[in-house]
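Go through this pair.

…
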Amino acid sequence: MRLDHLSVKISRQLLQAGIIEHDLESQLLICKALNITKENYYAQLQKHIQQDCINNINLLVTRRINKEPLSYICSYREFYGLDLYVDCRVLIPRQETEIIVDKAIKFLKSKVSSNQQIKILDLGTGSGALAIALAKFIPESIIYATDISNDALQVAEINCSYHNVGKVVNLICLDGLTGFVGGVDLVVANPPYLSKKEMAEVQPELLFEPNIALYGGLAGWEKSVELIESTGQIMNDGGKAFFETSPECIDSITREISKKQNVNKLETHVDYSGNNRVIELSF
């Protein structure tokens, strides 16, 4: 079968399975299975594909029809212009999380002129997305990237090595901040924030992602409050923390945190889709 005909056939299969971007995903799955670039894909559209190659493509298509996330199938996700390796050991980085990098960089620009080396904590690093993005911006900083999952840290190590930031990013296996010693100037985090009810109603794709990276407690916001409270104990004077959460949780979190004495200022920010997404805390 010719590649262009095969691509149309796969696109229709994906459409029938409810995949919205079926044309694009058809192309990406073919490129993955044949190990070719997008440019080679277009150059070979008239080429006849051997049956063994078609079989390999169909295996990937079946996985996608079964709602496995495309990022896991392709072992790839772009975040803040960076190519990241991802698999089922880590949460897939989302575009809405990029606002944390923007907010953090804006804050760090006011700190880099000082003689003191900037210390950053990426709390619950997963694939390493936030830590690596910040390491690229301030390579002279010290970044601690923690996660409770050793499996996740193995993925983060792959990405740190690929982006040559292994000397900047220190990967540490920790449960929250238990055992963390020292002060930091910046904390960034995308903690789990789905409620028990939301976990029972998630889209099928989310079932492939680590439960520990999704479930935030009975109401969804409990884990975030716990981590924010711990964060206040390690912040240097003048430091900031940026936590991602959901529009459904943000009011509950801010209400709980506003009762604490160690936070000088608390602000919230919308993401680039206009949803309440980020909590900024000044210490």
